[in-house]
Write a structure and sequence with these properties.
2 copies of one chain form a homodimer. Chain A is of the alpha/beta class and 424 residues long. Chain A has 2 domains: 11-59 and 285-420, Aspartate Aminotransferase, domain 1, CATH 3.90.1150; 66-281, Type I PLP-dependent aspartate aminotransferase-like (Major domain) (Aspartate Aminotransferase, domain 2, 3-Layer(aba) Sandwich), CATH 3.40.640.10. Helices cover 46% and strands 12% of the residues of chain A. Chain A has 16 helices and 14 strands. The first copy, chain A, has helices at residues 26-47, 78-94, 108-119, 137-146, 159-166, 185-197, 209-217, 251-263, 270-281, 285-303, 322-333, 344-359, 364-367, 384-388, 391-406, 412-420; strands at residues 11-12, 17-18, 53-54, 101-105, 125-129, 150-154, 170-174, 201-205, 229-233, 245-249, 311-314, 317-320, 361-362, 376-377. In chain A, the strands form 4 sheets. Chain A has a 7-stranded mixed beta sheet, with helices on both faces. In chain A, strands 11-12-14 form a 3-stranded antiparallel beta sheet. In chain A, helix 10 packs across helix 15 and helix 11 crosses helix 15. The longest helix of chain A has 22 residues, at 26-47. Chain A is globular, with a radius of gyration of 21 Å. The relative contact order of chain A is 0.16. Chains A and B meet through helix 1, helix 2, helix 3, helix 4 and helix 8 of A and helix 1, helix 2, helix 3, helix 4 and helix 8 of B. Chains A, B: Keywords: Pyridoxal phosphate. Chains A, B: It comes from Saccharopolyspora spinosa. Chains A, B: Residues 104-279 form the Aminotransferase class I/classII large domain.
């Protein structure tokens, strides 16, 4: 049985949302991103860099020092020069022991895929996830490339039975999802303990969790939760970027996964690994807590303009499910659901384009990679709210963009033009 | 029947060389690289950056401007800012048309793997290679991940029959291998023409070829050889680095392959794509010709010290097959072949370590990624020969390192210590 969204559109099981006639595949998601990059560039050229405010929940700055360019960023010699500092800083960040090791990948997705392909042969990957939250799309990609199945089990269901019966080589635990559903430390420990007892390797996907659990919820450092491997993201939740995946844990496993990843061209280039080091060095839990407070304030203000339950309040800011985005816009248009010319993901993308083009609000709805989720998410970074003119201005921008989208939501061509621009 | 090297060791069909008891898998190749990075870093710390000379045939500098760090290298907005210049410069470099498009990957390997996985379902990939030269290891990796076979056909054999009978969706042409075996332009055109006639997409692996064919052999620009897609490397043959894969050609295919690659975390980060742009902008065919002349001179001088035929002269410098490296070292030790404690790839790695540690000569024998070839290759970049003290000093370094290796070649533990250092 194919799952459907609340409009009756069939959900693409890989993407986790319904595709339409504009966003038919990952290829159009890529074109959507390129169109958005063009729109952002035009805005910067016309109004300057301060005219863009990042609401994706993560900065992607590049904090290397000018001195690093000819030393650490040179790839034959540089990685040897920064290896000791990277290891020390990475392990301190994740609460690792002296015997643990680290490696930097081009993305967290790359590290997850390389782990699955390196460690699994024919066995099902058991993936334990927070209640209500799926694992990242890269888990499915990795399993397909390895030619194995993934069994996603919410932590509130019988994950123990899944591990006992499937006897996986690899148990993957998503501690915090990209929508910020979160697993308790006690649950994480129970999963890693059983997996270890039964001889499985455990990988914690701590892309957000490494800092969100610890800085906002007083959680235990990542490498002290009983897992063999942990991966986090150098541009999420209090880290400044660049985007990169930091893998850490048992040195023999880090070496195996790194070798597999290097064969696939997934390792971080020296300039990125050097940037990851600078990002880790600059980590500030207080800045993360400040961003979380700003997100809460924005969620509170936005929710007054929507029916109860529509605006969900995550740790880092408000979210509106893509179905609710389309429903809201149709309501504003006075149009019944069957007159929608688009599916929910296309509506939330178009809304993202209007927020970006007319208000400088940059979201994952325009700038996510293929595979990113499609709910409207506003996670303000550093001075993002200030750049737009305050919380009220951000709320007004969302409402204004929603009205503008309502005017074209029954016109497929107009929405396609917004989402894909001049692209085919 | 398993192929064997000239010592009777079975050749690993994936790696293309025989594995031993020190380098048993790609994991040890990764440890070999980390050990070498540590050795290079120690030398730089003791004797300064000028004490290392790059003989890998490619620079891996990072030529972004200080101004780029907060603009082009910021990943939300930067890629939109440099996209027009990247496209124009990339297409000019490859002889593309206005209708072609470009995308930058984290490595050429990543672009090749993403192409295979994106475009192939169940069909065999037909891979046409120069006489005597295999395709890159990434072709095999991509096919395994896609769950399909690769048929490698030398261009001197009946590749046309292979294409006609297999009816591939994808024909891959390696124009110049990493050992610099080269295919004629006329042959490349014949392959792309037949593939096109039979409806297959063609990808040219022009990692080296884009510049080696054109600047040294008067060849046709890459995108004018009838292929749908071309990939080249931003740190090879006259480009300064960073390492990155530039994919170019039909825009619909570039979009598909890019979307697949992005799902796997294989796309170039903004700082790398910005570096690739600067690398392409700085391309100098004359510098490449100068490096080629230096390589020829070195090959001539080195060959006087070896039996006829042992030193092969490539476009960019001398090469000695790994079997000949081990045989030479055994001869110097006065030891028969059956007393060798190591296989040829371990001997050439150990020789690379001695060249690096004692003479500052950095080669792929120490610094290649897992999967790299293992013959001794000396391809001097820019001022590499000058840094060592001239051609005679480089030759003396090779002879001196060979003597030193001869003293331990029957001692497995000593060779392991050289190759892997303190690693397990």
């Amino acid at each position: 049985m194919t799952a459907e969204d609340s409009f009756g559109n069939p959900i693409d099981p890989v993407a986790g949302f319904a595709r339409g006639t504009i966003i038919t595949s990952a290829t159009e998601e890529g074109l959507r991103l390129r169109n958005a990059q063009r729109i952002a560039a035009e805005r910067v050229q016309a109004k300057g860099p301060e005219s863009i405010a990042i609401f994706t929940g993560n900065q992607r700055n590049y904090p290397v020092h000018a001195d690093d360019l000819t030393t650490l960023c040179e790839e034959w010699v540089g990685p040897g020069l920064f290896a000791p500092a990277l290891r020390a800083t990475g392990l301190a960040h994740l609460g690792g022991l002296g015997s643990d090791d680290v490696a930097v990948f081009n993305r967290t997705s790359a590290a997850i895929i390389a782990t699955i392909v390196a460690l699994v042969r024919d066995e099902t990957v058991v993936s334990v996830v927070p209640a209500g939250g799926p694992s990242h799309a890269s888990v499915g990609h990795g399993a397909r490339l390895a030619g194995v199945e993934v069994l996603n089990v919410p932590v509130v269901e019988d994950w123990a039975e899944a591990i006992q019966t499937r006897r996986p080589k690899l148990v993957l635990v998503t501690t915090v999802t990209s929508s910020l559903e979160r697993m308790d430390d006690a649950d994480i420990r129970r999963v890693t303990a059983l997996a270890r007892e039964l001889g499985a390797v455990t990988l914690l996907d701590e892309a957000y969790g490494a800092r969100l659990r610890t800085a906002l919820h007083g959680g235990t450092p990542s490498l002290q939760l009983g897992a063999d491997l942990v991966v986090t993201n150098c541009d999420k939740a209090g880290l400044s970027g660049p985007r990169a995946g930091l893998l850490a844990g048992r040195p023999d496993l880090v070496a195996r996964v790194s070798a597999t990843g290097a064969g696939f061209g997934m390792e971080a280039r020296a300039p990125i690994a050097a940037g990851a080091l600078r990002s880790l060095e600059g980590y500030s839990p207080e800045l993360l807590r400040e961003e979380a407070r700003a997100g809460q304030e924005l969620a509170g203000a936005l929710s007054k303009h929507y029916r109860d339950g529509v605006v969900r309040n995550s740790d880092l800011g408000p979210m509106i499910h893509e179905d609710d985005v389309l429903r809201d816009v149709l309501d504003r248009a006075g149009a019944p659901a069957n007159e929608a010319a688009v599916v929910p993901c296309e509506a939330s993308s178009a809304l993202g384009v209007l927020l970006l083009r007319d208000h400088g609000i940059l979201t994952v709805n325009t700038h996510g990679q293929p595979g990113a989720r499609v709910s409207l998410r506003l996670k303000p970074t550093a001075d993002a709210i200030h750049r737009v003119g305050g919380v009220t201005s951000v709320v007004e921008a969302v409402l204004s963009a929603s009205k503008e989208l309502a005017a074209v939501v029954t016109d497929r061509a107009a929405v396609a033009e917004l989402v894909l621009g001049g692209n085919p």
